[in-house]
Specification:
Helix content: 55-70%
Pfam families: Sigma70_r1_2, Sigma70_r2, Sigma70_r3, Sigma70_r4
Protein name: RNA polymerase sigma factor
Organism: Mycoplasma phocimorsus
CATH architecture of the largest domain: Up-down Bundle
Largest sheet: 2 strands, antiparallel
Structural class: mainly alpha
Order of helices and strands: HHHHHHHHHHHHHHEEHHHHH
Keywords: DNA-binding, Sigma factor, Transcription, Transcription regulation
Strand content: under 5%
Family: Belongs to the sigma-70 factor family.
Shape: elongated
Length: about 425
């Protein structure tokens, strides 16, 4: 066994003993996600074969879920969405072409001699029916999800192992029969995608996106499935559906997308931190984490990785019991002074302005305001702080002369005992 799988297999064997039974695919993928293992498709395929050969995972799909049991379409919808049905005019408006002429009957599993023209006609009829009946009716996300679940409901329950094998043989032989067999193998397992996707509904992606990623996983499973190895397609498909969904959640659920290579680096840092704590009983320093990661890592880069891993919160997010308040209402804006500070600042400005007017000539007032950025010019623009060089150039004198004038102005202001007392009281 490849050394890179030894730790994974060892941990999963311990988990199997703890669970007192074979692990589900969900258990395995949750473990990989928790431990932050990043495996490519080839490694995942190898790992699946290892797990099945060692009897660590269930040798079938997760048939304990209600979506894979024989039930009517109404129960199928309600098991995922606990909301009212959209207001369709009739039941027919909700189903796209319930004609089974475009499906392969179970009784004629190997009979693919259907006319190409008939298939094209059925496709056009389904599209025309869809456009006519469903236009402007699916206005909300949940409506679309419900419609989709009803649509896949017409393909029936999962295939048996024998049916899967017969279809896989046709796919291997290729040709038009192989393409039709591939299509049927995918369609008859679409309910499996719903079954798995609903368990990830609170992970940051919409249910529609989860279904889309799961469908991509089942297509990949069909292309990689080898029935000669002996396991059921539904077992193999479950593995790849979960892989596609968990990878999508990790890659797309963030508000700001983090590149895949950076996600792998984040996972390394998290894994090193967790393993160090488990081995030593205390949290590692940034330097210790950097030493564990290697690859020219230092403490500063570890801190940078932590900042990247922080997921932002939308200021428009609704909070409160009634969801009638936005998160921004509770966030302090440091750029805006508090009412108390604003009032104090205005009071101080008035005191200083009175002090300047009582103690200095008009030219002296302007110079000291420019020097310290106090008050406003004649056009209402706030003075910025000027350097001695800037004032010397503007007044056409030396920098030393500006310094002397500044010192003289400050002495005159200090001699105003009334305002000086006000300033003292203000700061006390």
């Amino acid at each position: 066994m490849d050394i890179k799988y030894e730790k994974i297999i060892s941990d999963l064997e311990k988990l199997k003993q703890k669970n007192k039974g074979n692990l589900s695919h969900e258990d395995v993928h949750d473990y990989l996600e928790k431990k932050k293992y990043s495996l490519d498709d080839e490694n995942l395929d190898d790992l699946f074969e290892l797990l099945t050969s060692k009897s660590l995972i269930k040798y079938e799909a997760d048939t304990d879920d209600e979506l894979l049991v024989e039930e009517d379409d109404e129960d199928l919808v309600k098991s995922v969405l606990d909301e009212e049905e959209p207001n369709f005019e009739s039941e027919e408006d909700f189903i796209v072409n319930d004609d089974d002429s475009d499906l392969l009957d179970d009784d004629n599993l190997l009979d693919f001699e259907e006319d190409e023209e008939e298939i094209a006609t059925d496709d056009k009829k389904e599209k025309r029916y869809s456009n006519k009946k469903l236009s402007n009716k699916l206005t909300e996300t949940n409506d679309i999800v419900k419609w989709y679940m009803r649509w896949i409901g017409k393909y029936g329950k999962l295939l048996t192992a024998e049916e899967e094998k017969e279809l896989a043989v046709k796919i291997e032989q290729g040709g038009r029969k192989g393409r039709l067999a591939r299509e049927k193998l995918i369609k008859r397992n679409l309910r499996l995608v719903i079954n798995i996707a609903k368990k990830y509904k609170s992970r940051g992606l919409s249910f529609i996106d989860l279904i889309s990623e799961g469908n991509a996983g089942i297509i990949k499973a069909v292309s990689k499935y080898d029935f000669h190895k002996g396991f059921k397609f539904s077992t193999y498909a479950t593995w790849w559906i979960r892989q596609a969904i968990t990878r999508a959640v990790a890659d797309q659920a963030r508000t700001i997308r983090v590149p895949v290579h950076m996600v792998e680096t984040i996972n390394k840092v998290i894994r090193c931190e967790r393993e160090f704590q488990q081995e030593n009983g205390f949290m590692p320093t940034d330097d210790q984490i950097a030493a564990c990661v290697g690859e020219d890592f230092d403490a500063e880069k570890v801190q940078y990785i932590r900042k990247i891993n922080i997921d932002p919160i939308s200021l428009d997010k609704n909070v409160g019991k009634e969801n009638d308040t936005s998160f921004s209402d509770f966030v302090k804006d440091d750029n805006i002074p508090s009412p108390l500070d604003f009032a104090a600042q205005n009071e101080l400005s008035d005191i200083i302005d009175d002090l300047l007017k009582e103690s200095l000539e008009e030219e002296e007032q302007e110079l000291i305001k420019q020097r310290y950025g106090i008050g406003y010019d004649e056009f209402g623009n706030k003075f910025r702080v000027h350097s001695l060089d800037e004032l010397a150039e503007e007044k056409n004198v030396t920098k030393e002369r500006i310094r002397q004038i500044e010192a003289k102005i400050i002495r005159k202001m200090k001699s105003n005992t009334n305002k000086k007392k006000l300033l003292k009281n203000y700061y006390e």
